[in-house]
Amino acid sequence: AKEQGRNSYQFYTEGMQDREMLRLELDKDLSQALANDEFVLFFQPQLDLQTSQIHSAEALIRWQHPRRGLLSPAEFIPLAEESGRITDIGRWVVLAACRQLAKWKGTRFEQLRIAVNLSGRELDDEELVDHIREALVSEDVPADRLEVELTEEIFIQNIEHNLNQLSRLRQLGVHLAIDDFGVGYSSLGYLRDFPVDLLKIDRSFITDVTERHDDAVITRAVINLAHNLGIGVVAEGVETEEQLNFLRHHQCNLVQGYLISRPIPVEDLESALDNGILL
Ligand code: C2E
Ligand code: CA
Ligand code: CA
Ligand code: CA
């Protein structure tokens, strides 16, 4: 038993060493990734249940790693937040989104809005808002085509600084969405003090919304909360027709999830829209 214990201990430390090696390797590669143009935005459409049109698309970053293939944000965003590289990555994301909006001008995709994700760490950057303004100006796109998704964590720490950043963003005309709504442990007071445009109901409430009474109650309550505040509401992680029907019945404004589309390259989004393949 002693022997076994030692072996499993060694196994454990080797696992940790492997992970630490991978972390160091990725961190080193991350320092080159922007210069080598290795990031790409995938887009996941949001369906407007009232008009049955695709209303917007969330931009989700991927890293086309030279040896490891396409990496998901979970594999490198936390690392980039630790090292501070997230600031430059975030700037690239905003610029890439604005460039895409510029490309859509004069096409049938002109009305699409793009939502980008910003972490609390990115909000720390004093130049963030100036940078977003410059990106909108240089690409000559209206600010209301751009939406910023933030999680409730920003209402827990650095509140004064974050609220100031958000007002400046809002003054630009950029839309603000609260991502993963309902799992953030923050007070609801910010909804009173702050001009939010959209709540995104977290996927964890949607997964069993048609099976579990409590999830259904919470989802209906969030939809009502948003509507009574005069703001929009999106359900994330919609995977079944039953979930879609529930959300339609309860007047959720927008739905997003694998049922409508996975996150896909922009060319695929455009051809899906052209061919009417999307729901
Ligand atoms: P998120 O903002 O909550 O994005 C939703 C995640 O759920 C995405 O994962 C998406 O692919 C996935 N998803 C969408 N529909 C469904 C569904 O129907 N079922 C299931 N099971 N999953 C679904 P992804 O693309 O891996 O992104 C993970 C997280 O990484 C995002 O969570 C966001 O927090 C972060 N992230 C992505 N892009 C960026 C970025 O440009 N900047 C920053 N700071 N964070 C980003
Ligand atoms: Ca998001
Ligand atoms: Ca989310
Ligand atoms: Ca999330």
From TrEMBL:
Organism this protein belongs to: Marinobacter nitratireducens
Name this protein carries in UniProt: cyclic-guanylate-specific phosphodiesterase
Domain (EAL) ranges: 23-277
Compartment annotation: Membrane
